[in-house]
Amino acid sequence: MLEIKIPKTEAAVREATLLKWHKKEGEKVAKGEIIAEVETFKATVEITSPKEGILYKKFVEEDETIPINTVIAVLSERNEKISPETIKTFSQARRGMESLSASEDSSTKKIKVAPAARKLAQEKGVDLSLIKGSGPAEAITKEDVKKYLQKRTGFSIKETRKLTGVRKITAQRLSFSYHNIPQFTLHRKVDITQVRKIRDEMNKQGGFRLSLIDFVLKALVYTLEKFPEFNAVFEEDIHKLVEEINIGIAIATNKGLVVPVAKDLKGKKIFEVAQIRKAITEQALQEKLQPEDFEGGAFTLTNLGLQEIEYFTPLINPAQVAILGIGKAESSLPLSLSIDHRVIDGAQGSGFLQFLSEILASPSRLLFRLIGWI
Amino acid sequence: MKRWDLLITEEDDPFLNLALEEVLAVRVGEWAIPPILRLWRNGDCFVIGRLNHKRFAKQVEKLGKEGFSVVERLSGGEAIYQDEGCLNFSIAVSRPYNGWEWNSIDEPFKVLCSGLVKGLEKLGIYCRHLQVESFCPGPYDLSIKGKKVGGVSLAFRSKFVLVHGTLIVNSDLNSYVETLEKFYGKIEKDKITSLEKEAGRKLQRDELVKNIIGGYTDLFSMRFVHRNLLDEEKKQAKKLRIKYQVLGQQII
User: Fold this and answer.
1) Contact A9 B155 (CB under 8 A)
2) CB neighbours (10 Å) of residue A42?
3) Taking the CB of residue B108, how many other CB atoms lie within 10 A of it?
4) Residue in B closest to A63 by C-alpha
5) pTM higher than 0.80 for the full model?
6) A124 Cβ under 8 Å from any chain B Cβ
7) In 3-state terms, what secondary structure has residue A259?
């Protein structure tokens, strides 16, 4: 016995529609002969027989939408007997546990579906064969699909929230990042005892108050100068190293996550870096950022420390190639560096984190740099 | 170096054009002709995926009342609108061809469109495959900065693989979207763009065609031989024309 299946795909497509059967049950099928035609994500695909045989049983009707990899039919080889129990197993497997009590007749009945119901079912990944229609001629209505979904999930939807504005853009960009960038994250803890002391001393002198993140930003600028492959974008298979040091800073606002860019940080003293950081943060919180404030970033810094998180997996902001997450600062600061593996390997990532950690952990080196920067 | 046929056809009958897609692809699959790259245009029409006019019967009926031609294509998917500002492309290769094994139905999309993507890159236009939720969505949509600039669909047959699609070159995007909405209802205009808009300049058809051809020859070990449609191919397409007519002008 040979199982005829809907072919798998690489794309995130779960279903296919059986467009047409080219063979009837009981009909002889030669090797390579077309058995059926299906449609999935804009592809019509002919399903051919891998061997000579007889189309013993079909499990799917024309126009039915079914999950990828479903067995749509079985072929019997010459003189082969297939037991009714085996056939029943396939029918039941396809229809799921809910249909165990369904009669065999109903399994071969053509399903009538209202277009709105089909659309909803496709969106929610519902197998329509599991639903009993309440419409004219037992057609499945949108209401039937909704009821089924409620039953399947065990809860009813209180409220639906359509993604709009910043949330929608964030969803699109992060989905793209997650699905298209092969990224991995390296974690490292860095001792910041000395940095904190220096910050406290500097803040005691009055004037502009520095935050720990300003020290991280300044150390990051220096590290990006030493590791230019991280200050880059990857577009159209080309790794483009960027001249300027422009760092996007992820900021949580009432409207969602925004990532304005702190620009031209190369050569800036720490107070200048801090002023830029403070200005864009305030503009973000007051929702005063302009479209150009989001442009030009070649690296991103994100901070979940205020939310008491230590390590996490930041997602790269496309088409950048890396993002640094900082966690809750105590005597040490947890760092999480996500990297686009297409252009940067683990060893380079470790080197980047080590260098950054050394700057932040080594007071003498930091002071030396700070003296030059202040 | 393998020979491919290059056809730049000027037929403006959408039904005949879609019938030609089958005729040419079948001939490629029968090894009667080498693989083909065809670049072509249609008049104003909607082109809908195979057998999908049944699923979208109401929308098709509405288009018919407004006088639009609705044509079926051999490949899958929902409806796409084509006007004078669009350029269609078709690539058909036999199965098997030159050691090419398709391990999934995703591969032909990626491989057979790669020359087109490369050709556009030569013009400074960087498009990629990304599903855009606007019209006729699919994971291998051609997009620029998240906006749809073209659609691609596939007919994966036992003897051949046909990847074909439509690029929006210089259509008036306002009227293009307005027309699409006759089928889809409200569509977000800012999710659709054109090659000229993204290039920021006029694109001559010859320049576009030349670079697309260049994209393929850069990537594949092949040489194109430019030829016209054969009488035999036109004759076969005329016979098949009715098969692709969902709605529209009477058959001549």
Assistant:
1) no
2) 26
3) 23
4) B55
5) no
6) no
7) coil
